[in-house]
Write a structure and sequence with these properties.
This protein has 66 residues and is an alpha+beta fold. It is 59% helix and 15% strand.
């Protein structure tokens, strides 16, 4: 448990340091993301982004599990 918390902490620090570059990625604006905008209402469902992030996390977990 201690090891997991340390890894998650380091990961959060790295994401925080890389945020200026990460915000330039088109995540959240991919072609499969659903956005409905009406006056006074905005619905956002990033389905393509969720699938992409899920694939990346799955690959990373399988690499580090070995």
């Amino acid at each position: 448990m201690r090891r997991l918390l340390i890894v998650l902490g380091v990961l959060l620090v790295l994401i925080g340091l890389g945020w200026p570059w990460l915000s330039r990625l088109p995540l959240g604006r991919l072609p499969g993301d659903i956005v409905v905008e009406r006056p006074g209402f905005r619905f956002y469902f990033p389905i393509a982004t969720m699938i992409l992030v899920s694939l990346v996390v799955t690959v990373l977990v399988r690499i580090f599990r070995r």
